[in-house]
Amino acid sequence: MSSRLVQVRVGPLEATIRPPGSKSLTIRSLFAAGLAEGTSHLGDPSDSGDTRAARGALRSLGVGISEGDGTWTVEGTGGALVPSPTPIDVGESGLTARSLIALGALVPGPTHIVGHGRLPQRPMSGLVEALAALGVAVRSDQGGLPLVVEGSGSLRGGHVRVPAGDTTQFATALLLVAPLATEPLTIALDGLQGSTGYLDLTLAVMTSFGALVERSGQEFHVGCTGYRAVDFRIEPDASAAVYPLVAAAIQGGRLTISGLGASSRQPDLQIARVLTSMGCRVTLELESTTIESSGGPLEPIEVDLSEMPDGALAVAVACLFAHGESRLDGLGSLRHKESDRLQALADQLRNVGGEVRLEGDSLVIVPGVLRPAKVGTYGDHRIAMAFSLVGLAQPGIEIEGPEVVDKTWPGFWDMLDSL
């Protein structure tokens, strides 16, 4: 396996960074544009492994997508999808897989979906059961991928319940196709825990493309309006922005994230608030976020990160640079990602010299004496990016499989080198 030695940075950072477009918004807007009537233009999208999987999936069903310089043009189908003659490979993208499963109901024929990495082990049954309640048959030997959706070309409306304890992506998948249902559809969430901000992102994309959604508590009533084509600008990825922000918190200095500020609805931007509680000064303008740090030991924290699970990994690394014990709660969803991120975090935090207790869905982190280490990444892009931050301050940190960052931020290592 290849590896990459992180180069130590000396002195405070001074930088302005614009992360790639939001992966979450890119995938959601691709599906809405693909179902819309007419031609949409997506500005500043994320070009990464996950979004390439989403584009490939939609093209397989008859959606025309062309990539220009900073803009993608999507020729919407109005819901008139065509069956794919071959299995559709969604790579390792959970959001693409789940959205495509729901979309399969609108295909007049079978849609065979396959994936790679840990994706075949990630839960899909809650979405499959919700579709079954709406009359959509899904065949799967293992309860997950690979599977076949037996679409009829339409989705009936009514009322359906969907589990939301482990992930809100089941609900997002159903919401994205609901405007194409034959009658209004009400989606009720069971056991909703954390990550509710990603549902807000879904609703924001849907309404931008002309859908009519009314929310009442944990129920969503979606009109059968279809989608209309629009020009949709995608803001930078807050989950990606977390890494340079934490880098500045650890190293000290001043760093600005351009294009992403107080107007954003992305959940992981809340990490800025967490870094404030660790002693940093964070300023949120309308479309920029600036962090200033002395570079001294950070303040220990006790915080619930259930609303910002993707950013939790970088925060855990930041806790290695605090002057006391920190506790991170609400991390249960990390067990169902590209790796068991909760166990991986515990193992690799110890690997680089920290002391860690894993207590249910919580991590207790006690800073220790950092040491050189080869960091295992488990094929997980966020493990690689988070632990690279240790190497900015501690010599000898080597990241295994550095190419995994292509899943969400192909230019990550160039960004890190530029700091």
What does this structure look like?
By secondary structure, this protein is of the alpha/beta class. The chain folds into two domains: 202 residues, Enolpyruvate transferase domain (UDP-n-acetylglucosamine1-carboxyvinyl-transferase, Chain), CATH 3.65.10; 211 residues, Enolpyruvate transferase domain (UDP-n-acetylglucosamine1-carboxyvinyl-transferase, Chain). Helix content is 30%, strand content 24%. The protein has 13 helices and 23 strands. A four-stranded mixed sheet has the order 2-15-17-16, with helices on one face. Strands 4-5-3-14 form a four-stranded mixed sheet, covered by helices on one side. Strands 6-7-9-8 form a four-stranded mixed sheet. Helix 1 packs parallel to helix 6, helix 5 runs parallel beside helix 6 and helix 7 runs parallel beside helix 9.
Task: Label this structure with key terms.
single chain, 419 residues, alpha/beta, UDP-n-acetylglucosamine1-carboxyvinyl-transferase, Chain, 2 domains, 4-stranded mixed beta sheet, 13 helices, 23 strands, globular
Please indicate the count of domains.
Answer: 2
The proportion of residues in beta strands is: 15-25%
Total strand segments: 23
Poorly predicted parts: none
Looking at CATH, the homologous superfamily of the largest domain is Enolpyruvate transferase domain
CATH class of the largest domain: Alpha Beta
Terminal CA distance reads 26 Å
Task: Quickly count the helices.
Answer: 13
Q: Biggest sheet, strands in spatial order?
A: 2-15-17-16
Residue-averaged pLDDT: 96
What is the approximate shape? globular
> What's the helical proportion of residues?
25-40%
Radius of gyration: 21 Å
**Structural class, please?**
alpha/beta
> What would CATH call the architecture of the largest domain?
Alpha-beta prism
Reported for the largest beta sheet, the result is: 4 strands, mixed
